[in-house]
Design a protein that fits this description.
Blueprint lengths: L1 H13 L18 E4 L25 E4 L3 H5 L3 E3 L4 E7 L7 H4 L11 E7 L3 E8 L11 E2 L4 E4 L10 E8 L2 E3 L32 E8 L5 H6 L13 E11 L4 E7 L5 E6 L7 E11 L8 E11 L2 E12 L3
Antiparallel strand pairs: 1-2, 2-9, 3-8, 4-5, 4-7, 5-6, 6-9, 9-10, 11-12, 12-15, 13-14, 13-16, 16-17
C-alpha cells in the first residue's frame, strides 16, 4: 500500500503543469512585441489561440520580436523560462536574414543558434534564432529560471530579430497562452505563463511597434536597421515626415495618418484604403518636402488611427518640438 501511494504521488508530480517566466529580457508591449503565436488551425490556413491572424501555417512557437538592429547590437538576453537541464545547443550559424542566405543554406537548421532545455514532468523548451557565439550554456548544464543563456540574433529561418520560443509536453507542441485548449476553440485553455507577468502577456490584436518623425522619407529598411534615428527633423531638413509601423493589422482595417504643424495647421494626411488581407507588419508615412527657407519653429504632431467597420480600434498621437539648435 505504501509503495502504491508513493507511485501515485510521483505520477501526480510528473503531471504538474509547468510555470514559465518570460524567456527574453524585455517588456512586452514596450521594448518587445509578440509577433506570432502558435498556429491552432490543422489545415493549410492559420489562426492564433484567439482565432485571430497572428500566426502562420504550421508555426509551432511564440515569436517575441525586438524592434531593430541597433537595439539587437546592445545585447538582448535570452533567458531560461524554467529550471531544467540543457540537452542541446547550436552556436555557430551566421546572423543573416534567410532572404539573403536562402532556404537551402539553413535546411535542417531552421532554428539557427539555439538551446533546448528539458524540465521535469516531460516538458521541454526551445529557444531559436540566437546570435552567433552568444550561447552561454552547453549540454548537461543545469539552468535556473531567468538565467541568461544567450542573446537574440538573426540566425536560421528568420527575416527579423526575434526569439522563437517553443514549448513541448511529452513531444507535443503546447501553446503557453492556451494550454489544454479544446480543438477549434477560441480563447480556450489557460495560460501557463507565471502569474507575475500579469498584463505583459495580454493578447493584443494589433500593435504599434515603431513611430516618430524623420527629416527624410522612412523606409522599412531604415527602420529595421535603426538608421532612421540618424535623420531627425531640423529646421533645415529637406522633409518632415511622420511614420508608424504596426503589426497584426487585419483585412478590412482602414488607416489614416495626419500631421499638424504649429498652431494646428494641417501639414499632410495619408488616408489608406481598407486592407485587402491581413498584414504581419505595415509601414505608414505622411509628410511633405520643405518649401520654405526653414521649417517654422514649434510643435508638430501626428495622429495615427485604425478603424474597422466605422469603429476606432487603434490610435496613437505623438509630437516633436522643432526649434533651432
Amino acid at each position: 500500500m505504501i509503495s502504491l501511494c508513493l507511485a501515485g504521488a510521483i505520477d501526480a508530480r510528473a503531471e504538474e503543469v509547468i510555470s514559465l517566466a518570460l524567456p527574453i529580457k524585455c517588456r512586452p508591449g514596450l521594448t518587445c512585441f509578440f509577433q506570432n503565436y502558435v498556429d491552432h488551425d490543422a489545415s493549410d490556413k492559420a489562426r492564433d489561440y484567439r482565432c485571430g491572424g497572428r500566426s502562420y501555417d504550421g508555426h509551432d512557437g511564440t515569436d517575441i520580436r525586438i524592434v531593430n538592429l541597433e537595439i539587437q547590437r546592445q545585447g538582448i538576453e535570452v533567458l531560461a523560462a524554467a529550471p531544467g537541464r540543457v540537452i542541446g545547443t547550436r552556436n555557430d550559424m551566421e546572423d543573416i536574414s534567410v532572404k539573403t542566405a536562402g532556404k537551402a543554406t539553413i535546411a535542417g537548421k531552421e532554428c539557427g543558434n539555439g538551446v533546448v532545455i528539458e524540465h521535469e514532468g516531460g516538458w521541454r523548451t526551445q529557444y531559436c534564432h540566437m546570435a552567433k557565439g552568444s550561447v552561454r550554456v552547453k549540454a548537461g548544464d543545469q539552468t535556473t529560471t531567468g538565467q541568461p543563456i544567450g542573446l537574440v540574433g538573426l540566425s536560421g529561418d528568420t527575416e527579423f530579430f526575434h526569439l522563437h520560443f517553443t514549448v513541448r509536453h511529452r513531444g507535443k507542441t503546447v501553446d503557453p497562452f492556451a494550454y489544454g485548449a479544446p480543438e477549434n476553440s477560441c480563447g480556450g485553455g489557460r495560460s501557463i505563463w507565471a502569474a507575475s507577468l500579469g498584463e505583459q502577456t495580454q493578447y493584443r490584436p494589433r500593435e504599434i511597434i515603431d513611430y516618430g518623425f524623420a527629416g527624410i522619407a522612412p523606409t522599412m529598411e531604415l527602420i529595421e536597421s535603426g538608421e532612421i534615428g540618424k535623420h531627425p527633423v531640423t529646421p533645415g531638413s529637406d522633409a518632415l515626415v511622420a511614420y508608424v509601423r504596426a503589426i497584426g493589422l487585419q483585412a478590412g482595417d482602414q488607416q489614416i495618418l495626419t500631421v499638424q504643424g504649429p498652431g494646428g495647421a494641417s501639414i499632410s494626411a495619408n488616408n489608406l484604403p481598407a486592407l485587402d488581407r491581413d498584414k504581419a507588419q505595415f509601414l505608414v508615412i505622411a509628410g511633405k518636402k520643405r518649401n520654405e527657407a526653414a521649417w517654422p519653429a514649434g510643435r508638430y504632431s501626428a495622429t495615427y488611427r485604425v478603424t474597422r467597420d466605422g469603429a476606432e480600434v487603434l490610435r496613437k498621437t505623438f509630437d516633436i518640438d522643432a526649434r533651432p539648435r
